[in-house]
Design brief:
With 137 residues, this protein is of the alpha+beta class. The chain has four helices and five strands; from the N terminus they run H-E-E-E-E-E-H-H-H.
Length: 137
C-alpha cells in the first residue's frame, strides 16, 4: 500500500472513530476502494464492517461507508474530503444473513439505491419457511 493510501485510511479511521466512538475503537482499519481517478483527482469509497460482541445482551454489527475525493500528486495526499454516506446497523440475527461483500459491491458501483432492497431480500430468504431457521433461545 502506498503512503498516501495509508494516510487516507488513517484519516477515514479517525473520522469513523469520532462518529462511532468507543464501539469503533478496537476494530482495525477500513478497506479502501478506488472508484475513479481523473488526472490527480481521486474518488474513493472506504468501508468497514464491524461485528460487536456484547458483554450482556445481543451482539450487533455496523457497516460503515465513507465516500470522498482527494488530490494525489507526486506521491502525496492533498486535503481529502469525506462523508459518511451509509451506516448499516444490524441485529445479531440480521448480521448472520448479511453479505458485506454484496453491499460493498453495490456501493462501489454507485448503486446505493439498491442497498436497502438487497438487505430486504436477504431477510426474506432467511424467513422462507422452506429454509432452516435459527433456533429460538
Amino acid at each position: 500500500m502506498v503512503p498516501w493510501q495509508q494516510e487516507l485510511i488513517a484519516q477515514v479511521r479517525a473520522y469513523l472513530l469520532q462518529y462511532a466512538g468507543v464501539f469503533y475503537a478496537d476494530h482495525g482499519d477500513p478497506t479502501f476502494h478506488q472508484v475513479s481517478q481523473c488526472g490527480d483527482q481521486l474518488t474513493y469509497l472506504a468501508e468497514h464492517y464491524v461485528y460487536n460482541f456484547a458483554q450482556s445482551g445481543s451482539d450487533w454489527a455496523d457497516h460503515y461507508f465513507v465516500r470522498g475525493s482527494a488530490t494525489v500528486a507526486n506521491g502525496g495526499l492533498g486535503t481529502p474530503t469525506f462523508a459518511l454516506v451509509r451506516h448499516v446497523r444490524l441485529s445479531e440475527w440480521d448480521s448472520s444473513h448479511y453479505s458485506p461483500s454484496t453491499i460493498t459491491s453495490l456501493m462501489v458501483a454507485g448503486q446505493d439505491d439498491q442497498v436497502d432492497e438487497a438487505i430486504a431480500e436477504a431477510r426474506l430468504r432467511m424467513t422462507d419457511p422452506e429454509r432452516e431457521r435459527e433456533p429460538a433461545y
